[in-house]
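Table S2 (continued). Query chain:
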Amino acid sequence: MKKLFKNQWTNIILVVIIIAMVMPQTRKPIAIVFNKIIASNPSVTDEEERPEIESYNWILEDRFKNEVDFRQFKGKVILINYWATWCPPCIAEMPSLNKVYQDYKDRVVFLFISGEEFETSQGFMNAKGYDLPVYRMKTNYPDPLEGYKLPTSYLIDKKGRIVIKKEGAADWNSTGFRNTLEELLAN
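Corresponding output:
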């Protein structure tokens, strides 16, 4: 009898989770929590397999409508993150990105690129208390920096090689990632 009761509770919990995932009001918060739980450390690409940026010919626009030429970042460590306010994995990784940004914003170039209107993306940042720099693309990204899947992030070294390409949510505030940043900044 206890086994039957235990199985029923498991079924009840499973049904409640499924219903919560179907309901529009609870789907996004549950997806965000789930993505935080499964977020992994971004892994470094082996040195001999790191693709290089083909061109720095890329124009972005900041939230003040100023054009930003990607060429000015050549020779610097760069973290690019393609994201959207409606994307649960993007939202899930933002707290860890914000912590890293707070510690490295003076030494690493951070580009948080969204296709949404600035009122939407900046409104999200303001509501969450983040001061991450938001940009929009004015011209197409250079190869191989595509961002069709959200979130997609790239960590680029001073020589223009992609050290990390991560699709999906990640824990950017990990010791391993911070050690990678320190190593790139030292070289």
